[in-house]
Amino acid sequence: MCSRYDLTSPPEAVRAHFAYADRPNFPARYNVAPTQAIPVVCLDETGARRFRLMRWGLLPAFVKDPKTFPTLINARSEGVLNKPSFRHAVRRRRCLVPANGFYEWTGPKGKRRPFHIRPQPPRLIAFAGLYEYWQDPQGGEIDTATILTCAANRTVSGLHDRMPVVVEPEHYDDWLDVTRVSAEEALAMIGPADDDLFETLELHPKINDSRKDEPGIQEPLQPLQTSLL
């Protein structure tokens, strides 16, 4: 599951890591939420990497009214080849979603405890994503994306049984290149992240408010608790 994440690295650091030609100037995002515009990296028609902003929540081309269609912020990687909403995108429109970590909650309803799950040491990572172009009856086009999930690794499983798929840098080219690498081959190379990739940090409950997106939103719960496990 991935319903909230962060991207706090400077634009030039993101550009250097993902090697795209564009020079976007975007703010640090501490609390990215569904339906918001998110940065993604994809290939253009020449095969070059490009930076794009897309709505988080994939809309397949067959959707008539987005208001009556569920918000597809996640797609289970094990089933995308068989799901009408994703099977075209996984063959023709794969992307990377830059991130510095993601959030998860655990505990009973009303007393949910938020955790920041982040690489240790801190660094940029990429979630596996899919995207689609949706066109309204008037011809307006919306670029939309979803984040793939897989079974949780040992670090995350104490919080949730699913986690976003992390694509390692050596697999960026293969994941993005839908012409050279089939969907079956691309899916075969992804899975749960190594157990030692992430650390978990319990946060102050103010992260629960998806409307808040500022540096202090990642304040640790005091006293500091670095891991649930």
Task: Report on the architecture of this protein.
With 229 residues, this protein is mainly β. The chain has a single domain (5-137, 156-218), classed as SOS response associated peptidase-like (hypothetical protein yedk fold). It is built from five helices and twelve strands. It has helices at residues 11-18, 87-92, 154-157, 172-176, 183-188; strands spanning 5-7, 29-32, 37-43, 49-56, 74-76, 94-99, 101-106, 113-119, 125-135, 141-151, 162-164, 198-202. The strands form two sheets. Strands 3, 4, 5, 6, 9, 10 and 11 form a seven-stranded mixed beta sheet that branches. Strand 7 (101-106) and strand 8 (113-119) form a beta hairpin. The radius of gyration is 17 Å and the shape is globular. 36% of the residues are buried.
Backbone CA Rg = 17 Å
CATH superfamily: SOS response associated peptidase-like
- Taking all residues together, what is the mean pLDDT? 94
What string, H for helix and E for strand, traces the elements in order?
A: EHEEEEHEEEEEHEHHE
Count of folded domains: 1
- The overall strand count is 12
* Proper CATH architecture: Alpha-Beta Complex
Query: Roughly how much helix do the residues carry, as a percent range?
Result: 10-25%
How do the strands and helices of this protein lay out in sequence?
Layout: E1 5-7, H1 11-18, E2 29-32, E3 37-43, E4 49-56, E5 74-76, H2 87-92, E6 94-99, E7 101-106, E8 113-119, E9 125-135, E10 141-151, H3 154-157, E11 162-164, H4 172-176, H5 183-188, E12 198-202
Parallel strand pairs: 4-10, 5-10
Antiparallel strand pairs: 1-2, 1-7, 3-4, 6-9, 7-8, 8-12, 9-10, 10-11
